[in-house]
Amino acid sequence: MKISTKGRYGLTIVVELGAKYGKGPVPLRKIAEEQDLSEAYLEQLIPPLRNSGIVKSVRGAYGGYMLAKEPTNITAGDVIRVLEGPIQLVEGLENSDIPQQELWKRIGDAVRGVLDTTTIEDLVKSNESDPLDSYMFYI
Question: How much is the pTM?
């Protein structure tokens, strides 16, 4: 399974909106600038996220986008499925040998498990923590 740019950037949008949850709408332009991404490309990702009920839009001078639900109620799997389709590790699994089918099924279940148990709130918190906290230095 390979997550495309669409899935990665869509997850970036949702995590950024999760970090600003409760603070009002965020213009897509601001996310594009902060993350050094193409605003035009991000605009293509918003309609499926809005249609699925993950984000909502607010029109007007101070408009933008915001999460439609709390960050704890949206998972990485929700976002990836909307933008990438079903989470499927191997196509044509039924044509594989039985032992291989079991292996691919177990790996797929593990990937889905991680995506479905990782909330946007989890990703926001890990983004806010100091990356050096996870390393131990010995002198």
Answer: 0.83
